[in-house]
Design a protein that fits this description.
A hairpin with a 2-residue loop joins strand 1 and strand 2 (28-34). The longest helix is centred in the last third of the chain and has 13 residues, at 116-128. Strands 2-1-3-4-5 form a 5-stranded mixed sheet. It is globular, with a radius of gyration of 14 Å. 44% of the residues lie in helices and 19% in strands. The model has no long low-confidence stretch (mean pLDDT 96). The protein is an alpha/beta fold. Helix 6 (116-128) packs across helix 7.
Length: 139
């Protein structure tokens, strides 16, 4: 999760939304990313999607673990299910409940760490940037 938090902080420093993600296989990070919707002007450049793009084609995702600082939305949860990722570790879900039930209904183990650093970073961003945040979550 520390690496995902680093990615979130990188995104924030770039003027973006502080959500970070890493993909781990056999204890090694094989992909990393952060939300780049603002930086790239791309509505689907979410942290988890950026992370999967960074990992590239690995053939089989079943033995990977996706870490994300915030509960994945339906777009990102759909990618998790589509590629057969069986475990997602989440920094927090108090700021955004995301697609927890969707992932669990599709056999994904979801672990919510309720990490205070993730929570406070996101809460501070939402307070300072409500319009950008609501755009990100489609409201």
């Amino acid at each position: 999760m520390k690496s995902a938090i680093q990615e979130a902080r990188k995104g924030l420093a770039e003027g973006g939304i502080p959500i970070g993600s890493v993909l781990v296989k056999e204890g090694r990070i094989i992909g990393r990313g952060h939300n780049q919707r603002v930086q790239k002007g791309n509505p689907i450049a979410h942290a988890e999607i950026d992370c999967l793009q960074d990992a590239g084609r690995i053939g089989n995702y079943k033995d990977t673990v996706l870490y994300s600082t915030l509960m994945p939305c339906y777009l990102c949860a759909g990618a998790v299910v589509q590629f057969g990722i069986k475990k997602v570790v989440v920094g927090e879900s108090r700021n955004f409940g995301g697609a927890l039930q969707f992932m669990r209904q599709h056999g994904v183990e979801v672990i919510d760490l309720d990490n205070n650093e993730c929570y406070e970073m996101m809460l501070d961003f939402i307070r300072k940037n409500p319009v950008l945040w609501y755009e990100d979550i489609g409201k």
